[in-house]
Amino acid sequence: MNKFNKFLKISFVSIIGCTLLLTGCNREEEESSIPSEIVVSGGDISEPEKLPFPVNTCGVRLEKAVERAVSLSPAATEIICELGFRSTLVGVSGYCDYPENLSVQSVGSTENPDINAIIQLRPDAVFTLSALSEREAYALDQAGIAVLTAAVPTNMEGYTVLYKEIASAFYGKELIDSQKDVSRALQAGKDARTTLEKAAQTVEPYTFVYVTEKLTIAGTDTFESAVLSLSGENMYMGGGYLAAGELDCAAPTFVIADSDLSEDEIYDNEQLSDLLYNGSELRFVNSRCFERPTARTAEVFLSLTASTPETSETSETTDDTGETYEYGTTDEGEYW
Q1: Residues contacting 114, CB < 8 A, separation 6+
Q2: What is the DSSP letter of 42?
Q3: Taking 90 as the threshold, does the pLDDT of residue 335 lie above it?
Q4: Backbone phi, psi, residue 256, to 5°
Q5: Helix, coil or strand: residue 128
Q6: Is residue 17 scored above 60 in pLDDT?
Q7: Topology of 201-303 in CATH?
Q8: What's the whole-number average pLDDT of the chain?
Q9: What would the CATH number be for the domain defined by 55-198?
């Protein structure tokens, strides 16, 4: 009996040992089948693609690019065309006269927009530089039309932002270079400013005062001063607009005046005439250069560069020595 019990104990221990041995082997096989590293393959892992829309511009959220546009601002119209989106215009202000031959329906102006006509054109957005009335803005909003009111610039940074905000309505957040993270809209603003700065470099450094149509002097915090200061220095260091009769400064290189003024109006002002008698040169510039902050603003510098007599006809001739000369007639019929 004792031998039998002993045999059972030995057999039981052997069975347990074999079981543990087999279990250990299986565990080792399972552990060996588990990879020590998890390798992910099948393509590059990168940041999710940045979609150009929605975008916020002029304080308004746009879900998609503007495909049909109405512009109530001549400046906005010019900028939209400069950016290459002329074909999106379906309506413009009655004051929008550039580019020429727009052949687009007139829908009033910012002061008196034809809201019903605008709604019938089904634009995605209305561009303006002056705020519409609450009633007009509400009517357009109810029709699902975004009203984009861009800020009128008073300095060069504002000029850059104006282009960026209008461009954003068409480009959204689209990048021009993913590595540099520069948007097309921002680049449009930078390019516009660079073009204006290059135009200013064609003029020798000068000092100036600018006389507006209302016979006021533009201060350093105005857009007129910001543009002219790209190559010059404003002799009126105050802000805002000062009545010309209150001006007190040394004679500048130029007294630059709004082209809507006449020489008589300038000389009839004692302070301005004193500047001219003391050596300042009188130059007139088209007020549109400042009223419409666009690429054409650069034309202001043409009035400040040394000019040849205006001609109605020019020709070339070669003398006996072989040198070529250019000649023509002035508007008064005189040869030069």
Answers
A1: 107, 108
A2: S
A3: no
A4: -100, 125
A5: strand
A6: no
A7: Rossmann fold (3.40.50)
A8: 85
A9: 3.40.50.1980
